[in-house]
Amino acid sequence: MITINQIELNPFVEVDEMPFRSYIDNKAFFFLLKRVSDIILSLLVIIFLLSWIVPLMVILIKLNSRGPVFFVQRRVGRGLRSFGCIKFRTMVLNCEADKRSACNNDQRVTSIGKFLRKTSLDELPQFINVLLGDMSIVGPRPHMYADCNRFSEYIQDYKFRSLVKPGITGLAQVKGFRGPAEDSYNIVTRFYYDSVYIQKMNFHLDINILLNTIFQVFTIIFFKRIIKKGKAKNINSDSSKIAA
Question: Where exactly are the structural domains of the chain?
Fold first, then answer.
């Protein structure tokens, strides 16, 4: 069984999509059990967490800024199909929300939004997406269409990520690659870890990713520690960003 710490970066690995289509088709039983687990866990989160967190967010978000409590954005799902990804709104209303991802010190982000983004609690409504079947709890993060179009030109076989359902959390996130990707190293490395997850996916790995995610969120909330993010290594940065 593979664990999180056993997965190290090898940026020279090439992805061949077609053999993995057959590989994924042969994992039908795994995907069935994964779907059953997604339904059970998402129902538990919706009943025991969202049932009281949503009313609390209604008060906090409404008092903090004008606009809806939820932000629904078109994201790319499995097979490049579009779906409405649900989040707690973390920005003031603006016309660039679907085109420009949040960056460090982004003036569009509200004060409550900063906390929600820092702790990833803004992603909690995506358990509704999981229940509806648009997402899985663990998988590559769903991206905006603008980002997918841009990075499919930047990275060969970028659509490889869409062979599986996108996730609320993933291998790239527990490896420290959370938030906007602000340089080439972060963009390429996230794609690398997403492709590694697709190649190695199993229940043991999913459980490891889920437990690591819970640990990181609790560490940020209760111990005020920032999880170390991935940083560029000898690769020139560019201005492109992807929403994760």
Answer: 27-223
Distance of CA 92 to CAs 73, 98, 197, 220, Å? 15, 13, 34, 24
Best CA proximity match to 170, nearest among 129, 130, 141, 128: 141
Each residue's pLDDT tens digit, 93-115: 887 766 677 777 788 889 999 99
Closest listed residue to residue 83, CA positions, set 93, 92, 72, 94: 72
- Interval 21-35: pLDDT, tens: 788 888 999 999 999
CB atoms within 10 A of CB 1: 10
Give the integer Cα–Cα distance in Å for 62 and 59: 5
Spatial CA neighbour of 38 closest among 210, 215, 218, 216: 210
